[in-house]
């Protein structure tokens, strides 16, 4: 009983240790993001109150309240401690341009952005896997799609969006040109954001599949009478996924950044347009809030990726 328990304990330790390390690293990343946001507020030239207010006009009473709320009349370490405390309690500050809290301003827009990012993510994964599985190891197909992928990587998302609008909205009238109502309004912006992601992921996944198809276990599967497509989907694909999963963190970051441009091109509501408006209006609390939310998203995605690695590759679990 003891002999069996010891390997099991070691296997659990191999699973738990990297997760704990990632959690510790994530705390440092979030702390660093909060610290950079605080430093950006206090190191930017100009009066801190004026930076918080932006281009809006406020009464002396509101100005005094801002000083009291942010503790600007206290020493800098005390201000930093108070800022950390507010962030830990979910208080990202107040937007004096929008006349509401930063958390509520972001909360009103996040749904539309998540919808766009999720649809682009699903589209990119489905198309990438399909293209890679069908072209891996097939010389002519590989050559054709490699050229298409090169073009896809080279095209900026905003230019792809403009082309899609010109053809499918202004020309053919199939999809709406602006707005965010209905699933049809998601099609063009999702495609525009997914194009460079598909081009990158399909290349990486195809390389992994081609290497995996040369492994001995693939030959064994073929000798048992399994079809070529079955071998690719049931055996080769899982082993080729690890390098692609590594890119998933980059992909989410890319989609988050791409949403800023795509939402403007297609006149969609979302965090992207909110961020651009905040930058234009010098609404620093909103900009700082978006930076913190982006950092939290990065941390959560990387933790999920670590867990996904363990699910895909049993060797990482000590099995």
Automatic annotation (TrEMBL):
Main location: membrane
Membrane topology field: Multi-pass membrane protein
Keyword Cell membrane found: yes
Annotated GO MF terms: dipeptide transmembrane transporter activity
Protein's cellular compartments: Cell membrane
Span of domain ABC transmembrane type-1: 110-309
Transmembrane segments: 19-41, 116-136, 148-174, 186-205, 240-266, 286-312
Swiss-Prot/TrEMBL keywords: Cell membrane, Membrane, Transmembrane, Transmembrane helix, Transport
InterPro entries: MetI-like (IPR000515), MetI-like_sf (IPR035906)
Domain of life: Bacteria
GO-annotated cellular components: plasma membrane
Coiled coil: none
UniProt similarity note: Belongs to the binding-protein-dependent transport system permease family.
Name of protein: ABC transporter permease
Organism (species): Microbispora triticiradicis
Lineage, top ranks: Bacteria, Bacillati, Actinomycetota, Actinomycetes, Streptosporangiales
């Amino acid at each position: 009983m003891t002999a069996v328990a010891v390997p099991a304990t070691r296997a659990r330790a191999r699973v738990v240790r990297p997760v704990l390390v990632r959690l510790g690293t994530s705390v440092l990343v979030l702390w660093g993001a909060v610290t950079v946001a605080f430093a950006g507020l206090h190191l930017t030239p100009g009066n801190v109150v004026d930076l918080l207010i932006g281009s809006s006009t406020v009464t002396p009473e509101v100005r005094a309240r801002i000083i009291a709320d942010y503790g600007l009349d206290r020493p800098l370490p005390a201000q930093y401690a108070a800022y950390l405390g507010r962030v830990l309690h979910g208080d990202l500050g107040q937007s004096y341009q929008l006349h509401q809290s930063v958390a509520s301003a972001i909360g009103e827009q996040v749904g539309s952005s998540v919808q766009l990012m999720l649809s682009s993510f699903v589209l990119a994964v489905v198309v990438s896997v399909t293209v890679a599985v069908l072209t891996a190891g097939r010389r002519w197909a590989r050559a054709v799609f490699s050229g298409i992928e090169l073009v896809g990587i080279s095209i900026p998302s905003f230019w792809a969006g403009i082309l899609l609008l010109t053809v499918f909205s202004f020309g053919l009238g199939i999809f709406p040109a602006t707005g965010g109502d209905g699933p049809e309004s998601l099609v063009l912006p999702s495609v525009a954001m997914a194009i460079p992601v598909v081009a990158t992921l399909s290349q990486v996944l195809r390389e992994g599949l081609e290497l995996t198809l040369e492994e001995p276990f693939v030959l064994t599967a073929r000798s048992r009478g399994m079809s070529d497509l079955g071998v690719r989907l049931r055996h080769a694909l899982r082993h080729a996924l690890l390098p692609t999963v590594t890119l998933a963190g980059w992909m989410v970051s890319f989609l988050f950044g791409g949403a800023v441009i795509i939402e403007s091109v297609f006149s969609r509501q979302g965090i992207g347009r909110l961020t651009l408006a905040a930058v234009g209006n010098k609404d620093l609390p909103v900009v700082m809030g978006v930076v913190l939310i982006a950092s939290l998203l990065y941390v959560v995605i990387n933790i999920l990726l670590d867990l996904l690695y363990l699910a895909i590759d049993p060797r990482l679990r000590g099995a």
